[in-house]
Structure formats: C-alpha cells, structure tokens
Amino acid sequence: MFKKSQELYQQGLVNLVGAVNSPVRAFASVGGNPLFIKKAKGSKIIDVDGNSYIDLVLSYGPMILGHRHKKVQKAITKALKNGYSFGASTKNEIKLAKIVCDAFPGMDKVRFVNSGTEAVLSGIRLARAFTGKDKIIKFSGCYHGHQDALLVAAGSGLATLSLPGSKGVPEGAVKNTLIANYNDLESVKAHFEEHDDIAGVILEPVAGNMGVVTPQNNFLKELKEYLKSKGALLIVDEVMTGFRSKFGGAQELFDVEADITCLGKVIGGGFPVGAYGARNEIMEMVAPLGGMYQAGTLSGNPIAMAGGIATLTELKKQNPYEKFNEIAQIIEVFLLESAKKYGIEITVNRFGSMINPFFTNKKVTNFDEAQTCDTEKFAVFFWEMMKNGVFLPPSQFEAWFLSSALSEKDIEKIAKAIDKSMEAVSKM
C-alpha cells in the first residue's frame, strides 16, 4: 500500500535529515515510515502510491478552501507571469494588509514576514521594545515556532527556572522566558509577584499543538485585564487559529483584544507567509518608523500576496464558519459514539474548524491533562484511519483541520473510517 513511499524514505535518508524537512513528518510518534505526497485537489490528497485520502491535515491549517481552489490558482498563475520576487514593494502588499487589519479590531498596521515562527519572534521583540522590559511568559504545551527563546520546558514549580527544550539552545537564551500553566491565571500572577521586568505574555487563544485546548472560565479576558494592570502586553499567536473560527481572530470570539497579534497559515493561501500587527503606537516602534529592527528580503513575496488575497477574499465570500461548526459537531458525535460502542475512553475537543480526540478519560484543559493520553491507542487509530482513506496529523497532540471543500460523501467516509479505527483500537 505504501511501497513507493517506503522507497523514497530510504532514498531521502541519504541527503535529508531523517528523510524529512520537519520532524512531525517523520511519523515518529505513530511508528512506521512517513508518506510522500504527489498531489492534492479539493478535499483530497494523493500519495506517490496513488492512495487517495480525505485531507484533515491541510498543510497544518492553511488550505482552508481545500487544495488548488480555482480562484486561488487563477490569482497565483496571473502573478507568476509578472515575476517571482522583486525585493521591492508591490501594490498587493497594501491590499492584503488592509484585508488583514480590517479583520482584527485594534490592528492598525501589520508587517508581513515569511513564517509563523518569524512572526512570533518579531512580535516578542516588539513587545520588549515597546515596554522596555525583557521577560516573556509562555504556557506549557503552546508552541510558537522553533526560536531559541521559546523552546523551553517547564520545571515542576510555578516559578521554576526555564530549561532549554532542545540541544543547541543555551541556558542564556531562555533565561528571560517564564513558564505558566494554560488556563491557570494564578500561575501567571506568581511570576509577576517574583519579577518586575515582564514585557508580556504569549499564548495561542486556542492551543493546537497539545491537541485542541480551549480557554476556560473567561481565562483570556481575565488574563488581558491583569496584564493591563501590570503594564504588560498580551501577544496572541493566531498563526493556527487566525481565520479558522471566524473571518478574523479567535480572540474576538472570547471578547479579548490582543496588544500584538501574530498570524500565518491561512493568510498565505498555502504559501510561506506570516505577519504581526498591532495598534499604531506599538507598530510605530518598528523600523523604518522606530528603533526595533526587523527585515526580510522575501517578506511580502508577490506570489504569496496574490495567494493570500485570493484566499481571504473567497473565504469572506463563502463565510463557511457555521458549516465548519456543524461538521465538527458531526465528527465529534461520530468519535464519541464509536468509542462508546467499542468501550474506548476518549475526550473530544473542538473549536471552529479544529477538532481532535484525546485517548484519555480526563477533560483536557492544559498540557498536563493532555499528557494522560494513551499514545499507543492513537497510533493504532491513526494507521487504521489512513488505511481507510483519511489523512490525519501523525500525532496525538496535533489538531485536525476542516476545509470548505468537504462534501457529504467525505463526511460519510470519515464516519466509516472512525468506526473501523475504533474497532481496531478495541482489539489491542
């Protein structure tokens, strides 16, 4: 079934690190060799062996309209005729900037970059520049890219010093990063009681890299109010959630306004794009207006701008968010009913067009609770879903994504695949 992928994997080991260019693609947490993809169209993705799957990975979020949407394809083709990269300004940068700023209350200006990681590291630098303070609080289980300062693992205590979470990250790089517990405001307050040089807090409004974990009990709103009282900024990483629960940000649904918002994924329509934005007084710290330097030769790439404009324009026209909620609810019911049928304990979390099951009997509201999952059961579930034509992220701790290209037949196939996969888990 996966013969050609296995052959390519062996070839890739020679000149690629682990035969992949991003660790999650290695399938390490589910076992087996990674799949190699040949093409995709609409709701389907096809591997080199010709196996077709309903795609619930969607390049980890950006393909919200499905693959190769005709209007996006047309816009990209048109842009390609004019050139690939200029290292100079283009009209479409202004057009996409207006679309993005109009979608986020409190965002007056935006700066485009090339990835979510770059957006976050720039957003943090901006928070430090604006406040004149050095320390940043992040939450365990929230992923904000692979920059040194945020690749940290928390100690056992609330105020334990951060330790590097990767080889090659010196302790000095994380000395100004503090760890708090998601959905736990008291863990944030504990750091402020000990430190007077905290520039801000960064978080995902809905976590997507420990599985889908939503804020509880007005957590975001109370966090923002507390930070305001302390003169610190709220940096909201909407790289994953931006434009996935509404046209704009998840923060608005929780009645909270970020001081700095970081974006990516959807705003590039499948091309490498990131962005960070804020109100004027903050963004005017950025060069050439202010003293915070950040630059990028490929930032505002004309092909990416064209793809982003076409994607967001079509997304606003479709307004698929009510449909996303309906489909996510249907999939949740499939998961829960099938798990009950086969005597398997799971918890299902979802938000907008993001959903995933946790193989645990606990409610999952933070990283510690997510860690109670039975990853061996997920691995069996994952491969059975793949064999039954549903492409999932190869990790218990990654969100599944929905696209507006999903059909009723696709949903029926997902339901059948879930049932067969839960049955396989029950036989472990």
TrEMBL record:
<keyword id="KW-0963">Cytoplasm</keyword>
<dbReference type="Pfam" id="PF00202">
    <property type="entry name" value="Aminotran_3"/>
</dbReference>
<dbReference type="InterPro" id="IPR015424">
    <property type="entry name" value="PyrdxlP-dep_Trfase"/>
</dbReference>
<keyword id="KW-0627">Porphyrin biosynthesis</keyword>
<dbReference type="InterPro" id="IPR015421">
    <property type="entry name" value="PyrdxlP-dep_Trfase_major"/>
</dbReference>
<comment type="pathway">
    <text>Porphyrin-containing compound metabolism; protoporphyrin-IX biosynthesis; 5-aminolevulinate from L-glutamyl-tRNA(Glu): step 2/2.</text>
</comment>
<dbReference type="GO" id="GO:0006782">
    <property type="term" value="P:protoporphyrinogen IX biosynthetic process"/>
</dbReference>
<feature type="modified residue" description="N6-(pyridoxal phosphate)lysine">
    <location>
        <position position="265"/>
    </location>
</feature>
<dbReference type="GO" id="GO:0030170">
    <property type="term" value="F:pyridoxal phosphate binding"/>
</dbReference>
<dbReference type="InterPro" id="IPR004639">
    <property type="entry name" value="4pyrrol_synth_GluAld_NH2Trfase"/>
</dbReference>
<comment type="similarity">
    <text>Belongs to the class-III pyridoxal-phosphate-dependent aminotransferase family. HemL subfamily.</text>
</comment>
<protein>
    <recommendedName>
        <fullName>Glutamate-1-semialdehyde 2,1-aminomutase</fullName>
        <ecNumber>5.4.3.8</ecNumber>
    </recommendedName>
</protein>
<dbReference type="InterPro" id="IPR005814">
    <property type="entry name" value="Aminotrans_3"/>
</dbReference>
<dbReference type="InterPro" id="IPR015422">
    <property type="entry name" value="PyrdxlP-dep_Trfase_small"/>
</dbReference>
<dbReference type="GO" id="GO:0005737">
    <property type="term" value="C:cytoplasm"/>
</dbReference>
<keyword id="KW-0663">Pyridoxal phosphate</keyword>
<dbReference type="GO" id="GO:0008483">
    <property type="term" value="F:transaminase activity"/>
</dbReference>
<dbReference type="GO" id="GO:0042286">
    <property type="term" value="F:glutamate-1-semialdehyde 2,1-aminomutase activity"/>
</dbReference>
<comment type="subunit">
    <text>Homodimer.</text>
</comment>
<keyword id="KW-0413">Isomerase</keyword>
